[in-house]
Protein backbone atom coordinates (compact mmCIF):
# COMPACT_ATOMS: atom_id res chain seq x y z
CA UNK A 1 0.00 0.00 0.00
CA UNK A 2 2.94 2.33 0.57
CA UNK A 3 3.96 1.78 -3.05
CA UNK A 4 0.46 2.71 -4.15
CA UNK A 5 -0.02 5.75 -1.94
CA UNK A 6 3.42 7.38 -2.15
CA UNK A 7 2.93 8.46 -5.75
CA UNK A 8 -0.53 10.00 -5.23
CA UNK A 9 0.52 13.43 -3.90
CA UNK A 10 3.20 14.03 -6.53
CA UNK A 11 2.52 12.00 -9.67
CA UNK A 12 0.17 14.49 -11.35
CA UNK A 13 2.85 17.17 -10.93
CA UNK A 14 5.69 14.86 -12.07
CA UNK A 15 3.73 13.72 -15.13
CA UNK A 16 3.87 17.20 -16.67
CA UNK A 17 7.59 16.74 -17.22
CA UNK A 18 7.43 13.47 -19.20
CA UNK A 19 6.03 12.69 -22.68
CA UNK A 20 2.28 12.12 -22.55
CA UNK A 21 1.99 13.51 -19.04
CA UNK A 22 -0.11 16.55 -19.93
CA UNK A 23 -3.12 14.36 -20.69
CA UNK A 24 -5.16 13.98 -17.49
CA UNK A 25 -6.75 10.84 -18.91
CA UNK A 26 -3.33 9.16 -19.13
CA UNK A 27 -2.41 10.47 -15.68
CA UNK A 28 -5.60 8.91 -14.32
CA UNK A 29 -4.81 5.64 -16.08
CA UNK A 30 -1.30 5.62 -14.61
CA UNK A 31 -2.77 6.08 -11.15
CA UNK A 32 -5.54 3.54 -11.70
CA UNK A 33 -3.77 0.85 -13.76
CA UNK A 34 -2.58 -0.76 -10.54
CA UNK A 35 -6.18 -1.25 -9.53
CA UNK A 36 -7.16 -2.64 -12.93
CA UNK A 37 -4.92 -5.70 -12.73
CA UNK A 38 -5.60 -6.04 -9.01
CA UNK A 39 -9.31 -6.26 -9.78
CA UNK A 40 -8.71 -9.00 -12.35
CA UNK A 41 -6.54 -11.16 -10.10
CA UNK A 42 -7.50 -10.65 -6.44
CA UNK A 43 -10.06 -13.46 -6.32
CA UNK A 44 -7.73 -15.88 -8.15
CA UNK A 45 -4.82 -15.10 -5.82
CA UNK A 46 -7.09 -15.34 -2.76
CA UNK A 47 -8.49 -18.71 -3.86
CA UNK A 48 -4.96 -19.89 -4.73
CA UNK A 49 -3.86 -19.07 -1.18
CA UNK A 50 -6.72 -21.21 0.16
CA UNK A 51 -5.54 -24.11 -2.00
CA UNK A 52 -1.73 -23.88 -2.04
CA UNK A 53 -0.92 -21.85 1.05
CA UNK A 54 -0.60 -18.19 1.89
CA UNK A 55 3.18 -17.76 1.81
CA UNK A 56 3.93 -19.00 -1.75
CA UNK A 57 1.20 -16.73 -3.12
CA UNK A 58 2.44 -13.73 -1.14
CA UNK A 59 6.04 -14.26 -2.32
CA UNK A 60 4.95 -14.47 -5.97
CA UNK A 61 2.89 -11.31 -5.63
CA UNK A 62 5.70 -9.34 -4.03
CA UNK A 63 8.06 -10.35 -6.84
CA UNK A 64 5.57 -9.04 -9.41
CA UNK A 65 5.14 -5.82 -7.45
CA UNK A 66 8.91 -5.28 -7.36
CA UNK A 67 9.20 -5.98 -11.11
CA UNK A 68 6.48 -3.47 -11.92
CA UNK A 69 8.19 -0.83 -9.81
CA UNK A 70 11.44 -1.35 -11.73
CA UNK A 71 9.61 -0.94 -15.07
CA UNK A 72 8.05 2.31 -13.85
CA UNK A 73 11.37 3.56 -12.46
CA UNK A 74 13.04 3.12 -15.87
CA UNK A 75 10.12 4.59 -17.86
CA UNK A 76 10.69 7.50 -20.22
CA UNK A 77 7.04 7.87 -21.33
CA UNK A 78 3.85 7.78 -19.32
CA UNK A 79 2.72 4.71 -21.27
CA UNK A 80 5.58 2.70 -19.74
CA UNK A 81 4.59 3.92 -16.28
CA UNK A 82 1.06 2.66 -16.99
CA UNK A 83 2.56 -0.73 -17.92
CA UNK A 84 4.73 -0.78 -14.79
CA UNK A 85 1.78 0.09 -12.59
CA UNK A 86 -0.27 -2.69 -14.21
CA UNK A 87 2.51 -5.21 -13.48
CA UNK A 88 2.69 -3.96 -9.89
CA UNK A 89 -1.03 -4.54 -9.57
CA UNK A 90 -0.70 -8.10 -10.87
CA UNK A 91 0.81 -8.95 -7.48
CA UNK A 92 -2.70 -8.95 -6.06
CA UNK A 93 -1.98 -10.48 -2.66
CA UNK A 94 -3.95 -8.30 -0.26
CA UNK A 95 -6.50 -11.07 0.26
CA UNK A 96 -3.79 -13.67 0.92
CA UNK A 97 -2.07 -11.39 3.44
CA UNK A 98 -5.28 -10.64 5.32
CA UNK A 99 -6.27 -14.31 5.29
CA UNK A 100 -2.80 -15.24 6.64
CA UNK A 101 -3.35 -12.88 9.55
CA UNK A 102 -6.76 -14.44 10.18
CA UNK A 103 -5.18 -17.93 10.12
CA UNK A 104 -2.58 -17.01 12.71
CA UNK A 105 -4.82 -15.23 15.23
CA UNK A 106 -7.39 -16.78 17.58
CA UNK A 107 -10.97 -15.82 16.82
CA UNK A 108 -11.43 -13.74 19.98
CA UNK A 109 -8.53 -11.49 18.90
CA UNK A 110 -9.19 -11.52 15.16
CA UNK A 111 -11.34 -8.40 15.02
CA UNK A 112 -8.68 -6.36 16.78
CA UNK A 113 -6.05 -7.61 14.36
CA UNK A 114 -8.23 -6.85 11.33
CA UNK A 115 -8.80 -3.38 12.75
CA UNK A 116 -5.03 -2.98 13.17
CA UNK A 117 -4.47 -4.01 9.54
CA UNK A 118 -7.17 -1.66 8.31
CA UNK A 119 -5.85 1.14 10.50
CA UNK A 120 -2.33 0.53 9.22
CA UNK A 121 -3.57 1.02 5.65
CA UNK A 122 -5.21 4.26 6.63
CA UNK A 123 -2.15 5.41 8.55
CA UNK A 124 0.18 4.46 5.68
CA UNK A 125 -2.02 6.52 3.39
CA UNK A 126 -1.81 9.46 5.77
CA UNK A 127 1.95 9.00 6.27
CA UNK A 128 2.45 8.82 2.50
CA UNK A 129 0.66 12.13 2.05
CA UNK A 130 3.05 13.75 4.51
CA UNK A 131 6.35 12.21 3.33
CA UNK A 132 5.82 11.92 -0.43
CA UNK A 133 6.57 15.54 -1.32
CA UNK A 134 9.94 15.78 0.46
CA UNK A 135 10.81 12.27 -0.69
CA UNK A 136 10.05 13.25 -4.29
CA UNK A 137 12.22 16.35 -3.84
CA UNK A 138 15.14 14.21 -2.59
CA UNK A 139 15.07 11.13 -4.85
CA UNK A 140 12.58 11.89 -7.63
CA UNK A 141 9.77 9.71 -8.95
CA UNK A 142 12.15 7.03 -10.22
CA UNK A 143 13.69 6.86 -6.75
CA UNK A 144 10.27 6.34 -5.19
CA UNK A 145 9.59 3.43 -7.55
CA UNK A 146 13.02 1.92 -6.79
CA UNK A 147 12.45 2.35 -3.06
CA UNK A 148 9.11 0.55 -3.06
CA UNK A 149 10.54 -2.30 -5.15
CA UNK A 150 13.36 -2.77 -2.64
CA UNK A 151 10.86 -2.72 0.21
CA UNK A 152 8.83 -5.43 -1.54
CA UNK A 153 11.92 -7.66 -1.76
CA UNK A 154 12.70 -6.94 1.90
CA UNK A 155 9.13 -7.94 2.76
CA UNK A 156 9.77 -11.37 1.21
CA UNK A 157 12.68 -11.95 3.57
CA UNK A 158 10.62 -10.78 6.53
CA UNK A 159 7.74 -13.08 5.56
CA UNK A 160 9.97 -16.14 5.21
CA UNK A 161 12.15 -15.52 8.27
CA UNK A 162 9.79 -13.97 10.80
CA UNK A 163 6.17 -14.92 10.05
CA UNK A 164 4.92 -18.35 11.21
CA UNK A 165 3.40 -20.75 8.72
CA UNK A 166 -0.22 -21.57 9.63
CA UNK A 167 -1.48 -25.12 9.82
CA UNK A 168 -3.42 -26.26 6.74
CA UNK A 169 -7.18 -25.79 6.96
CA UNK A 170 -8.91 -29.21 6.91
CA UNK A 171 -10.99 -29.75 3.78
CA UNK A 172 -14.40 -31.31 4.40
CA UNK A 173 -17.12 -32.07 1.87
CA UNK A 174 -18.85 -28.84 2.86
CA UNK A 175 -15.72 -26.74 2.29
CA UNK A 176 -14.50 -28.49 -0.85
CA UNK A 177 -17.38 -27.13 -2.90
CA UNK A 178 -17.67 -23.49 -3.93
CA UNK A 179 -19.11 -21.28 -1.20
CA UNK A 180 -21.88 -19.31 -2.87
CA UNK A 181 -22.43 -17.31 0.32
CA UNK A 182 -19.26 -15.33 -0.35
CA UNK A 183 -20.58 -13.31 -3.31
CA UNK A 184 -24.25 -13.39 -2.24
CA UNK A 185 -24.18 -12.48 1.48
CA UNK A 186 -25.83 -9.02 1.52
CA UNK A 187 -23.56 -7.73 4.30
CA UNK A 188 -20.43 -8.75 2.40
CA UNK A 189 -21.88 -7.24 -0.77
CA UNK A 190 -22.40 -3.91 1.01
CA UNK A 191 -18.87 -3.91 2.42
CA UNK A 192 -17.51 -4.74 -1.03
CA UNK A 193 -19.45 -1.86 -2.56
CA UNK A 194 -18.26 0.41 0.24
CA UNK A 195 -14.59 -0.27 -0.33
CA UNK A 196 -15.14 0.31 -4.06
CA UNK A 197 -16.65 3.74 -3.39
CA UNK A 198 -14.00 4.67 -0.82
CA UNK A 199 -11.06 3.97 -3.11
CA UNK A 200 -12.71 5.31 -6.26
CA UNK A 201 -13.24 8.57 -4.38
CA UNK A 202 -9.69 8.56 -3.03
CA UNK A 203 -8.10 8.03 -6.44
CA UNK A 204 -10.36 10.49 -8.28
CA UNK A 205 -9.62 13.22 -5.74
CA UNK A 206 -5.88 12.76 -6.06
CA UNK A 207 -6.07 13.45 -9.77
CA UNK A 208 -6.99 16.98 -8.58
CA UNK A 209 -5.51 17.59 -5.11
CA UNK A 210 -1.81 18.01 -6.07
CA UNK A 211 -2.73 20.67 -8.63
CA UNK A 212 -5.04 22.39 -6.16
CA UNK A 213 -2.22 22.60 -3.63
CA UNK A 214 0.15 24.02 -6.23
CA UNK A 215 -2.14 26.29 -8.23
CA UNK A 216 -4.72 27.46 -5.66
CA UNK A 217 -2.97 27.14 -2.30
CA UNK A 218 0.27 28.48 -3.79
CA UNK A 219 2.49 25.66 -2.49
CA UNK A 220 5.33 24.20 -4.58
CA UNK A 221 5.33 20.41 -4.56
CA UNK A 222 8.19 20.16 -2.06
CA UNK A 223 6.09 22.11 0.46
CA UNK A 224 2.86 20.13 0.14
CA UNK A 225 3.78 18.47 3.44
CA UNK A 226 2.83 21.75 5.16
CA UNK A 227 -0.79 20.74 4.57
CA UNK A 228 -0.48 16.96 4.59
CA UNK A 229 1.43 16.62 7.86
CA UNK A 230 -0.94 18.60 10.13
CA UNK A 231 -3.92 17.02 8.36
CA UNK A 232 -2.48 13.57 9.09
CA UNK A 233 -1.85 14.35 12.76
CA UNK A 234 -5.35 15.74 13.23
CA UNK A 235 -6.81 12.64 11.57
CA UNK A 236 -4.86 10.25 13.81
CA UNK A 237 -5.96 12.08 16.97
CA UNK A 238 -9.63 11.78 15.95
CA UNK A 239 -9.53 8.34 14.32
CA UNK A 240 -8.07 6.28 17.19
CA UNK A 241 -10.79 6.99 19.79
CA UNK A 242 -13.48 6.58 17.12
CA UNK A 243 -12.27 3.08 16.22
CA UNK A 244 -11.90 2.11 19.90
CA UNK A 245 -15.45 3.28 20.59
CA UNK A 246 -16.78 1.34 17.64
CA UNK A 247 -15.19 -1.86 18.92
CA UNK A 248 -15.43 -1.60 22.71
CA UNK A 249 -18.77 0.18 23.13
CA UNK A 250 -20.76 -1.55 20.41
CA UNK A 251 -20.92 1.60 18.28
CA UNK A 252 -19.77 -0.01 15.04
CA UNK A 253 -22.75 1.08 12.96
CA UNK A 254 -22.96 4.72 14.22
CA UNK A 255 -19.23 5.21 13.68
CA UNK A 256 -19.49 3.52 10.26
CA UNK A 257 -22.34 5.82 9.20
CA UNK A 258 -20.61 8.84 10.66
CA UNK A 259 -17.42 8.21 8.69
CA UNK A 260 -19.36 7.85 5.42
CA UNK A 261 -21.23 11.08 6.22
CA UNK A 262 -17.90 12.84 6.81
CA UNK A 263 -16.73 11.69 3.39
CA UNK A 264 -19.85 13.19 1.81
CA UNK A 265 -19.28 16.39 3.81
CA UNK A 266 -15.77 16.68 2.37
CA UNK A 267 -16.97 16.25 -1.21
CA UNK A 268 -19.71 18.85 -0.75
CA UNK A 269 -17.21 21.23 0.81
CA UNK A 270 -14.65 20.84 -1.97
CA UNK A 271 -17.39 21.36 -4.56
CA UNK A 272 -18.88 24.51 -3.00
CA UNK A 273 -16.11 26.11 -0.94
CA UNK A 274 -12.79 27.64 -1.84
CA UNK A 275 -9.54 25.73 -2.15
CA UNK A 276 -7.06 28.05 -0.49
CA UNK A 277 -4.48 26.91 2.05
CA UNK A 278 -6.71 26.84 5.13
CA UNK A 279 -9.70 25.42 3.28
CA UNK A 280 -7.63 22.55 1.88
CA UNK A 281 -6.07 21.90 5.28
CA UNK A 282 -9.53 21.57 6.81
CA UNK A 283 -11.05 19.42 4.06
CA UNK A 284 -8.06 17.07 3.84
CA UNK A 285 -8.02 16.64 7.63
CA UNK A 286 -11.67 15.60 7.59
CA UNK A 287 -11.06 13.31 4.60
CA UNK A 288 -8.20 11.53 6.37
CA UNK A 289 -10.36 11.02 9.47
CA UNK A 290 -13.14 9.42 7.41
CA UNK A 291 -10.77 7.36 5.27
CA UNK A 292 -8.80 5.98 8.21
CA UNK A 293 -11.91 5.01 10.18
CA UNK A 294 -13.43 3.22 7.20
CA UNK A 295 -10.17 1.42 6.39
CA UNK A 296 -10.09 0.12 9.97
CA UNK A 297 -13.73 -0.92 10.33
CA UNK A 298 -14.52 -2.65 7.05
CA UNK A 299 -11.85 -5.41 7.10
CA UNK A 300 -12.80 -6.08 10.72
CA UNK A 301 -16.40 -6.67 9.65
CA UNK A 302 -15.31 -8.93 6.77
CA UNK A 303 -13.33 -11.10 9.20
CA UNK A 304 -16.41 -11.54 11.41
CA UNK A 305 -18.89 -12.32 8.64
CA UNK A 306 -16.88 -14.61 6.29
CA UNK A 307 -16.78 -18.36 7.13
CA UNK A 308 -13.36 -19.60 8.35
CA UNK A 309 -12.71 -21.93 5.39
CA UNK A 310 -13.31 -19.17 2.81
CA UNK A 311 -11.74 -16.07 4.32
CA UNK A 312 -9.16 -15.94 1.54
CA UNK A 313 -11.93 -15.96 -1.04
CA UNK A 314 -13.98 -13.39 0.89
CA UNK A 315 -11.03 -11.02 1.19
CA UNK A 316 -10.28 -11.73 -2.47
CA UNK A 317 -13.70 -10.40 -3.46
CA UNK A 318 -13.34 -7.46 -1.05
CA UNK A 319 -9.91 -6.53 -2.38
CA UNK A 320 -11.08 -6.98 -5.96
CA UNK A 321 -13.71 -4.31 -5.40
CA UNK A 322 -11.11 -2.16 -3.65
CA UNK A 323 -8.81 -2.47 -6.65
CA UNK A 324 -11.66 -1.88 -9.09
CA UNK A 325 -12.42 1.31 -7.19
CA UNK A 326 -8.80 2.42 -7.60
CA UNK A 327 -8.97 1.77 -11.33
CA UNK A 328 -12.36 3.38 -11.92
CA UNK A 329 -11.55 6.35 -9.71
CA UNK A 330 -8.23 7.02 -11.41
CA UNK A 331 -9.41 6.42 -14.99
CA UNK A 332 -12.82 8.07 -14.78
CA UNK A 333 -11.56 10.83 -12.51
CA UNK A 334 -8.94 11.68 -15.13
CA UNK A 335 -11.49 11.70 -17.95
CA UNK A 336 -13.95 13.87 -16.00
CA UNK A 337 -11.21 16.32 -14.97
CA UNK A 338 -9.88 16.50 -18.53
CA UNK A 339 -13.19 17.16 -20.27
CA UNK A 340 -15.63 18.52 -17.65
CA UNK A 341 -13.52 20.03 -14.89
CA UNK A 342 -13.04 19.44 -11.17
CA UNK A 343 -16.72 19.95 -10.32
CA UNK A 344 -17.69 16.86 -12.31
CA UNK A 345 -15.23 14.77 -10.29
CA UNK A 346 -16.74 15.94 -6.99
CA UNK A 347 -20.28 15.30 -8.25
CA UNK A 348 -19.42 11.79 -9.48
CA UNK A 349 -17.84 10.85 -6.15
CA UNK A 350 -20.63 12.50 -4.18
CA UNK A 351 -23.33 10.46 -5.93
CA UNK A 352 -21.46 7.24 -5.17
CA UNK A 353 -21.10 8.17 -1.49
CA UNK A 354 -24.80 9.14 -1.21
CA UNK A 355 -25.77 5.70 -2.54
CA UNK A 356 -23.34 4.01 -0.12
CA UNK A 357 -24.72 5.97 2.82
CA UNK A 358 -28.32 5.12 1.90
CA UNK A 359 -27.56 1.40 1.66
CA UNK A 360 -25.63 1.35 4.94
CA UNK A 361 -28.65 2.47 6.99
CA UNK A 362 -29.96 -1.12 6.68
CA UNK A 363 -26.63 -2.74 7.61
CA UNK A 364 -26.58 -4.93 10.73
CA UNK A 365 -23.08 -4.98 12.23
CA UNK A 366 -22.15 -8.38 13.73
CA UNK A 367 -21.11 -8.56 17.38
CA UNK A 368 -17.63 -10.03 17.90
CA UNK A 369 -16.27 -11.98 20.83
CA UNK A 370 -14.60 -10.06 23.60
CA UNK A 371 -10.90 -10.60 24.04
Give a nutshell description of this structure.
This protein has 371 residues and is mainly alpha-helical. It has helices at residues 2-5, 8-15, 24-52, 54-73, 78-90, 94-104, 107-162, 173-176, 181-184, 186-216, 225-248, 252-272, 277-305, 311-339, 342-360.
Could you list some keywords that capture this structure?
single chain; 371 residues; mainly alpha; 15 helices
Structural description of this entry:
With 371 residues, the protein is mainly α. 81% of the residues lie in helices and 0% in strands. It contains 15 helices and no strands. Helix 2 packs across helix 7 and helix 6 runs antiparallel to helix 14. The longest helix has 56 residues. The two termini are 28 Å apart. About 3% of the residues have low confidence.
Secondary structure layout:
Elements: H1 2-5, H2 8-15, H3 24-52, H4 54-73, H5 78-90, H6 94-104, H7 107-162, H8 173-176, H9 181-184, H10 186-216, H11 225-248, H12 252-272, H13 277-305, H14 311-339, H15 342-360
Amino acid sequence: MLGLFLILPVFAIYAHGIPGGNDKTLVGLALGAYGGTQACLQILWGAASDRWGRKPVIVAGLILFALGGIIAALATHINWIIIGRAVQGAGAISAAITALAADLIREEHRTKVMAMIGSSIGLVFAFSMAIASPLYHWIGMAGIFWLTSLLALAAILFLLLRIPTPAPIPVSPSTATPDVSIPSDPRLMLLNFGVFVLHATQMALWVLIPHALTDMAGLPVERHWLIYLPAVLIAIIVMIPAVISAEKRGLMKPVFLGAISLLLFVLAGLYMAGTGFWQLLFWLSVFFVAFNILEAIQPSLISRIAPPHAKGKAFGVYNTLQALGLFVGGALGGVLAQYFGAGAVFLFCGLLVILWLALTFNFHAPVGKKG
